[in-house]
Every structure is written in C-alpha cells, then in structure tokens.
Specification:
The protein is mainly β and 441 residues long.
C-alpha cells in the first residue's frame, strides 16, 4: 500500500504503486513505489494542516475567533465551558485543481470532482467546572484524478484517502481557581480508508505496447490525543492566549491488491493478495494570541508547527512473484513546517453579525526530489473571508470562503529523483456553512 501523510489536507495516507516504465521493455522484476496530499492534494488539519488538494478547510483558532474563517465555528476541548448544550453542524465544499507541466512545456490538468466535508460538534456543561463534548471531522484527506493522457499515470491515476476523526473531549473551567484559565483534552479515534489506481505499462502503448492496471485499497484505525489551554488575564481584558498540542496517530493499513493486464504479461506482475503498510499522521503544536484594541475588533496571530520530518520512509509489505511477501522501502524525507496565520474579526452589534478576513502562509513539507503526481504540492498563500449572523440568542449561521492562490513547485534536477521532471501546480477554493445553537440553557 502506498501512502503520504496528509497535507489533510492534505499529505495523507494512501496505497502503494506499481511502476514499470512505459519506455522500457517488459521488466523481469517489479517494484511497488509510493506516490506522493489532499495533494493536489489538499491538506486539511485540525488546528494544523488540514484537508488537501483536494480537500481542505483548515484552520481553527486557539486564542480567539478571528482565524475561524475557513471553518467558522469550532468546538475544541477548551471551548466546552459554556452553559447548556452547544452544537455546531455544517460542511465544506472543496473545489481543487492540480496540474503538471513537463520539461517541453506541455501541461496536464487534474480532473477532480468537488468534495463535501461534513463536521459536527456537541458539548454540554455537566458541572460548574466541567463540560464534555464530542466532535466529528475529516482533517486529513486526499482525492486526485489524472487524465489518461498524463505521462504520470504510471505513478498515479486516481487516489482517495479519507480519515475520520471522532474526538470525545473534556473541558475544565478553572476561573474559580485561576481567573481567566480554561483547559481541556480529548481522545482521537481515527478510522481511515484509502484507494488507489495506477497504470502499468509494458512498452509504449502508442507503439504496440500494453497497458495494465493496479488497484489497491485498504482500511485502518488509529488512536491519538490532544490537550489545549486558553488564558484571558483579567487584568488585560483585551488579551487572550491559547495553545494546543495534538499527538501523532499511527494508521496500520491492511487491504488487497488487484493487478490486471493482458495474459502474456500477467506473470510478470505480483499476484493478487494482501498488502499492508503503516502511516503516521504527524503531531502538531499551535500557539495563538488575540488582541481586542476596541470591543468590536479582534486581531489574532497564530503559529502552527507540524512534525512532518518523522515521515522518512514508506515501508510496504506486498505479495512477491514466486510466492511469499516482499518489503519495499521508499524514501520520503518530509521536512517540518511552521504555518503563520493572521486574522481579523469586526463585530456589527446592531446587525447581530460579524465579518472576518485573514491570510495564511502554509509551507509544504515535500522536497523537490520527492515531488510527484501523487502529491503536487507547493508553498501556499491563502486568503480567507467569512461572516456570522446571529438569528436569535440561541442560533447562528456562519459562512466562510478560503482560497489557495495558484502556486507551483519545480521537481529537482537530480537524476531519477523524482522520475518525472517539470513543474507541479495547485489551487483550491473552499466554501463552508455552519449552523450553531444552544439548547437547554
């Protein structure tokens, strides 16, 4: 199975890939190689790198509300301190586009369908100091489809990764003991599925060669956790500070591989059978500061560190020709990233509304010598706008738009790393709507 670690986003997990070269004679040996986020992948992540090219809504605020734009309302472990039962239900529509331009200048565009990403959060106060809640969201993911004409289909034709975070949380309101302080923690239960299709070429099909197909799929479930804190010093009412840490989540995928090609070549491919690999979604840490220079205006600056560098190699166990299994190792060599986000919220009390805008710089963890069609990723400049309307004291509706500006990254010139030289491009538009409410106050 192949994978990438969710850049949600997002670098995420996937299955493995088979890859004889289309310009070479029928090979006697076969190797599985990974393709490398929602990608185009779109990274999405929970307080970090989230959905991907193909799929994200990403960032939530830890210090205030100004950065809650792409995902306008979020209940985190430190939010579960209000009265009654609070809920947020909504979803995001992701329109993402990726491209590959070869060294001759010919460009190939992905053909990706829109992705819909649901989310649900519920919290309830059960004691003066304690609230409990549960959340459901999809912070890491991937969906990508290259046209048959793309030369990179022997790296990847189609790929889909989904991770489903189910997160029960507990929040503690410690204002009674430390005025202005609330803390919380939660458990991440993370089912995941992955499916990949890759073409296999024996010779050039345009010159009498043969094209086959490898289809791989699997599932996994992983576990992790998170802790967070928010502090609003009573002596400085205009200031609030938030921090959050989320652990790694290891996903051990098991699944099957199905290889189809014309009879003369079938015995040169691995037999159909079980495939397995493991993928670790990275740990992250976030720090945010919000300032309210006037009551109706909030400014927020957040920083997010993602531990992508733990993804050094991809190890895959697959059937071997002649019987038994083989373990294949592919270097990935991701690098850690630090994302910077700035947001502003302006309240309109008379209209029972608020408007928001923001900017984010989101660097890629993928280096030029491992860049591929499986994850055409690059450093991202992101702009966001959003707004909220309070329908009545108990219910509100929130809208958000996130736009990843067109960006690109060139593959390294190192021979064979990566196989396909050229430039990989991406851009994305994410729209979201959320309904929030309070019951039983």
């Amino acid at each position: 199975m192949h994978s990438s670690t969710a850049r949600g986003s997002t670098r995420s997990a996937t299955v493995a890939v088979l890859r004889p070269r289309r310009d070479s004679p029928p090979p006697r040996a076969f190797r599985l190689t990974p393709s490398d986020s929602f990608s185009p992948t779109w990274r999405r992540h929970e307080l970090a790198r989230s959905h991907t090219v193909l799929g994200p809504v990403r960032h939530r605020s830890v210090a205030g509300s100004a950065n809650r734009i792409g995902q306008p309302f979020v209940i985190n472990e430190h939010d579960a301190i209000g009265t009654g039962t609070q809920f947020a239900i909504g979803g995001s529509l992701v329109l993402a586009h990726g491209g590959y331009t070869d060294p001759s200048g010919t460009k190939f565009d992905t053909d990706n369908s829109p992705a819909v990403l649901p989310q649900l959060y519920v919290t309830s106060r059960v004691h003066e100091l304690i609230s409990v809640g549960i959340g459901f969201h999809t912070p890491f993911g991937l969906a990508i489809n290259w046209p048959d004409s793309a030369p990179t289909t022997d790296v990847l034709k189609t790929q889909s990764l989904r991770t489903y975070f189910i997160t029960p949380v507990v929040g503690l309101n410690l204002h009674k003991y430390v005025p202005g302080l609330s803390v919380g923690g939660g458990l991440d239960i993370v089912p995941a599925t992955v499916e990949l299709t890759q073409y296999v070429f024996f010779g050039d099909p345009d010159s009498g060669g043969t094209r086959g197909q490898a289809h791989l799929g699997g599932s996994a479930i992983g576990f992790g956790g998170r802790i967070g804190a928010m502090y609003a010093p009573p002596s400085i009412p205009m200031l609030s500070i938030g921090a959050m840490w989320r652990s790694r989540v290891k996903e051990s995928f098991t699944g099957t591989g199905d290889f189809d090609i014309a009879a003369p070549y079938r015995n040169q491919l691995p037999p159909d059978g079980d495939i397995k690999t493991s993928i670790t979604l990275p740990q992250s840490a976030q720090l945010g500061v919000a300032v309210r220079p006037i009551p109706v205006l909030e400014l927020e600056l957040d920083g997010v560190w993602m531990n992508w560098s733990q993804f050094k190699n991809l190890e895959i166990t697959a059937p071997a020709m002649g019987g038994g299994t083989q373990t294949l190792v592919t270097p990935e060599d991701y690098k850690d990233t630090f994302t910077v986000r700035f947001g502003a919220e302006y309240k309109l009390p008379m209209q029972h509304a608020a408007v928001r805008a923001g900017y984010m710089y989101d660097p890629t963890p993928i280096q030029p010598d491992t860049l591929s069609a499986a994850l055409p990723d690059a450093n991202r400049h992101v702009i966001t706008v959003g707004g909220s309307y309070q329908i009545n004291p108990d219910y509100g509706v929130h809208l958000g738009v996130l736009y990843v500006l067109p960006t690109s990254q060139d593959a390294a010139a190192t021979p064979g790393m990566p196989t396909y030289k050229g430039s990989y491009e991406l851009q994305a538009l994410v729209t979201s709507v959320t309904l929030t409410g309070t019951l039983g106050k």
